[in-house]
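Customer escalation, tier 2.

The customer says the design service returned an amino acid string that "doesn't look like it belongs to this structure." They asked us to rerun it and document both sides in this ticket. The original structure tokens are below, unchanged.
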């Protein structure tokens, strides 16, 4: 018997979306007992994501939640200005609390909740590590925060501080990809969510601070010495020649899904 891992992924339409989701989907196909919760940042579910999920062979839930315009990063804004994927992750949490609510008097389903952005790179081993999360488990994240890696520092089996390049005094100076939470904790703390108004770098803390203390964190990946997830970012493809051809009426066929 394996606890289910619920993976919440915010995603939004752009040229690389299908490539990102294909890569993610094919990683998740190697993971048993995984339930993918995909939350589109869009006014409605798109055909691209609907078809991809249908054909994936994964157990999934498809949701959407449009980020309000004033909360969204505008073209040209520096990427640190506003947090991304906040309302989508909260929508995933809302669905879990409604759909996986334990019947009165019962403990409910055993499970784990993980927030997986669509552009990161995930080792299959990471899911083995998080499978038995009791409250909140943690591990290193590679290529993040202007560092080779960030990680919790473990002494005597406990997290005692964090290796990070920036504001280690934050309650939980960890990237979104660096922790998982038990489903039970999510269900028994119905108010815990991500605060989109939290100051830069405090989004993860806004969710975790009501759920767990540093002392209770469960270090995984060999006492946080192995990097099993990377905060990779995908380059925006250049469309210089596409635009030039389009101007002559010779652009790529819009009927071909990319
Ligand atoms: N995202 C979104 N809407 C947006 C921008 C991003 O739903 O307007 C999603 C994106 O697909 C990803 C997550 O939010 O899963 C984090 O975004 P991104 O990877 O751009 O953030 P960064 O890596 O720069 O922190
Ligand atoms: Mn990213």
């Amino acid at each position: 018997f394996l606890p289910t891992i619920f993976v919440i992924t915010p995603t939004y339409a752009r040229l690389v979306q299908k490539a990102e989701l294909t890569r993610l989907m094919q990683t998740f196909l190697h993971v048993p007992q995984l339930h993918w919760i995909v939350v589109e940042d869009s006014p409605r579910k798109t055909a691209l994501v609907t078809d991809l999920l249908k054909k994936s062979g994964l157990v999934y839930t498809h949701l959407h939640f449009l980020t309000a315009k004033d909360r969204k990063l505008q073209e040209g804004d520096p990427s640190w200005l506003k947090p991304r994927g906040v309302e989508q992750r909260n929508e995933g949490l809302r669905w879990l609390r409604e759909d996986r609510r334990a019947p009165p008097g019962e403990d409910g389903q055993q499970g784990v909740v993980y927030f997986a952005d669509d552009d990161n790179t995930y080792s299959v081993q990471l899911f083995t590590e998080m499978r038995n999360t009791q409250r909140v488990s943690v591990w290193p994240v590679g290529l993040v925060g202007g560092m080779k890696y960030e990680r919790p520092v473990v002494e005597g089996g406990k997290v005692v501080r964090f290796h990070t390049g920036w504001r280690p005094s934050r309650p939980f100076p960890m990237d979104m990809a660096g922790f998982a939470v038990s489903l039970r904790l999510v269900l028994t703390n119905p108010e815990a969510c991500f605060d989109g108004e939290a100051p830069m770098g405090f989004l993860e803390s806004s969710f975790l601070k009501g759920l767990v203390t540093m002392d209770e964190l469960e270090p995984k990946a060999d006492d946080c010495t192995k990097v099993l997830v990377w905060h990779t970012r995908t380059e925006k493809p250049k469309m210089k020649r596409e635009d030039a051809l389009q101007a002559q009426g010779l652009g790529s066929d819009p009927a071909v899904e990319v």
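Tier 2 assessment: The sequence is consistent with the input. The chain has a mean pLDDT of 96. The CA atoms of residues 13 and 244 lie 23 Å apart. Sent an explanation to the customer and offered a walkthrough call.
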